[in-house]
Predict the structure.
Amino acid sequence: MRMKSLVNYLEQQQKPLISSEDSLKAWYSQDDSLNFLLNSTDDDVPVYICGKNYFLYSLIVPSDKLKKGYVEDLLGWNFNADSGYGYGYSFSKNEPVPFLSDPMENTGSKVLDGSLPLFFLRYFYGYKDHESYVEINQKISHVLDIHWVEEKHAWCKLNKLGEIIPIVNWIEQDDLTLCTLRKEELDFYLFLANACLIRVFDVSRSLDWTSGSELEKSFMDEENEIYAHHTLIGDPNNPTASILRGFQIIRCKKPREKMILRLKGKEPRKYVRFIIWDWKHKKEQEWTSDPEQIGNYFVESNYPFGTSPAFFKPDVLSKYRQNPSRYKIHDRWIECKGAWSLRYDINEEGQIHVYICDLSYLPYEEQLYWRSFNEPPKAGISSRSFKTDFEGQCDPSYDPLHSLKDTLTQFPQNDEKGNPCSIWKIPQVSETCDLTFLGYVVTDSRKEWEDQILVLAKIIVEGLNKSYINELAEAKRCRDKNLGSIKQLGRILECVSLSPEDIKITIDPLNELWRLRSAIVAHAGGDPPKEKLSIHFKKLLTDCDSAMQKLAELVKTGTLLQKGD
């Protein structure tokens, strides 16, 4: 049963929709309460309900405890929501003897004594007007690997797509507290524990609680394992109150073979067909990513090798760049936090290429996404991939993005003699502007280019230590309060007798980066470069790398120490 339907029902059942004689009889009959129990064993299963007239509490009970006579035993349950572990003491020879008490020790039912509650009802007096709160049993949360996520107000886990999915919901609404547990997770726990879930319930209804005669009848649905006593108070033809009290048993009914597959992490998977370059057979063809139909170098078969590449439009990366809280695009691999990773590269035509064996590890939904960008090859794989993946060699060719990241990561904070010189340091920025997010522009999208310009400017320009630069300018007697950090740094380089060529290498890229950021990107007042944006950005990365390497060299040699001439 879905959350919205659960909440709507629990709110509406507190009083009859209309007060006619027939509607009151139907309300007091509590047929709807039984139907609610019957229809709330899938999707989000209610495991704790506390409302004005509704109490439901759930316990995990070993299946072998349900022996002959268990129905009558369970109908005698008598307890409230447990508050957890406790302690006390008894006397022996007039001396107090301390002891620890477990949950569910005196339930009124031998079957339920010692059972495992899913939730505890805790109190912390003096906090939020003496509010009570629910706390999940840690044994449940540990086994299911779920964690409290405040913005979801639920205990959650990551699914195979890296999405945060509520598993155990906790809803507080007016006088209603509701906790639910996803059925597939409940089934898995019950399978692991060889147990069943028992929901005890007590639903009382009245518009005017007055004493009167009582008519009690038993309800027993053996097929759905719901057992209850239904008590009508007052005239049976015109009752004034009713109470439905009993229990329901919920079991894992999934095939054992299916649960074993989940236990082993070998649940059935689906795969997608991609256009690949089958270099084993020297032809372009469509082929499945199913590992069972992918060949290797050691076993003879007619299948393509797993290293057969599939090629994709560069826009395939846009989804990952736009959601840095879930995805990280590293150098040659993409990471979906806590879920999957995928190595890739970019060929000379700007196509993204991925080996079919790597695509097979992606979740089916993610494979479908990549399939939508799949296209025939316009060129082969990159020379870098060929050298590293097939020849087993390091790629000596210059890569401006990789080189710049190395330059910035290793930027010195001291000269070669250990004297401090903190003219630049990687700034503390959000994950949407950090070094991991910085990447190549691979499409002709202006937005992608602008995003990368902003990131590059934030890292490099905002990493400049303004106070150090100003103090250094004072020491070199070239301080100009009208200059920003970049131009002030340029004036310093002139004072330390750096050659005009080296000053140009160091300062011009920083000035150009800041101009692009300020005049075109941040204020949308200008046109982007006329050349292809991916080519322009790669050249800018190269220039910025040269600038930061030169600046690092000046730091190491002590040229930029704060000391007078």
In short: The first strand starts at residue 44 and ends at 50. The chain has 17 helices and 24 strands.
